[in-house]
Amino acid sequence: MFENPYVGISQQKENDGTVAQENKQQALQVAEESMVLVKNNNGTLPLSPHQRVFLTGPTANTGDLLGSWSWKGDIDDTDSLLTQLKQKVDTVHFSEGITYHQDVPQDWNNIVDQVNDVDVIVVALGLQSSESGEATSMTNPTLPDGQIAYLRALQALGKPIVTIVVTGRPLVLTTVDELSDAVLISFFPGTMGAEALSSILVGATEPTGRLPMTFPENAGQIPIYYNAYNTGRPVEVGMDNGEAKYISKYIDSPNEPLYPFGFGLGYANIDIVHIEVTNHVISSSGTIELVVQLANTSDRSGSTVLQCYIHQIVGETVRPLKELKWFKKIYLPANSKKEAIIRLPVNNLVSVHSDLRSYVDEGYYDVMVGLNSSELSHDDIQIKYLEEK
Predict the structure, then answer these.
(1) Considering the chain, what is the average pLDDT of its residues?
(2) Which terminus of the chain, N or C, has less C-beta within 10 A?
(3) Global pTM value
(4) Nearest alpha carbon to residue 199 among 84, 300, 120
(5) CB contact at 8 A, 144 and 129
(6) pLDDT in tens, 132-166
(7) What CA–CA distances, in Å, run from 8 to 11, 14, 110, 328?
(8) What residues does 125 pair with on adjacent strands?
């Protein structure tokens, strides 16, 4: 072993294994399921293969889709969105238009001529992989000003706008949202990211990703996260900010984020139609159970992510306004209904107390069910101890 410690090791075998078809297929699935559609007005997406598309932007024709923590991926061997979209759409016009940090678009007159001859504009914006990850903190997490100005100029041309955002962090996308008819956040989608992205754009793949973090409406809201503690003067549901001056609110911005934790859209129209708690009084060793009825009212099959949150109304320790305790991706065929059962053992509600013991408090809890952390249906349960803690 000491004379030949690397017996059997081959650089060629390592290279072949890294890019094996099985690994690439898994990379494709991960990329498809990670992208999040956050806006889609009037069915702008999916694109028809027969639509005439103008593709532009700094992330449209690059392999820099791997992110800063890619150890084995090679940008030069990674397909671009342009390459993949051309395989799925009959007519794709292209101009980069602007680089990552350029203020004035290149060849604007030619861009206008091309836009006049298309049905929809796909703008691929974002950050370089070197601008995400370790040692790349930002005080103002937004897209560069030049990219926003370019998007604004394209929007003024009067064609539907689909904006793709390549990013390794939550960004303030308020202006992007306002200027776009559809917004798809791809994050850094990896080696097979361009193929996954093009498949979602044309509807060959259903967008099923949901946001794993909160996207603020503006930088002044940061830090912003769904599981914050309550304040001493909370804004009550339905309260008009004019009713009370001294409540926890901004005077120049809503309290709510642009895109909440857990949010995401699909092409299929899937909604929750009924929720029932099977038992409102539960022992500390029992299980919270809810029966949820979902319906897909569209002619397209799809998936959604059912989410269950808990809030302890009165507790011995300070608890967040809501905590995600259960979630599941659920598939529904076109024009179908499905029943989902949420089972949450009470011991999932354990918290550490001042004496460092861990146990579940007796009392009332708010159980919330929905398809993201902001739009939730509520019901109360009571947990009772049948034995000593």
Answers:
(1) 93
(2) N
(3) 0.93
(4) 84
(5) no
(6) 999 999 999 999 999 999 999 999 999 999 999 99
(7) 10, 11, 57, 43
(8) 165
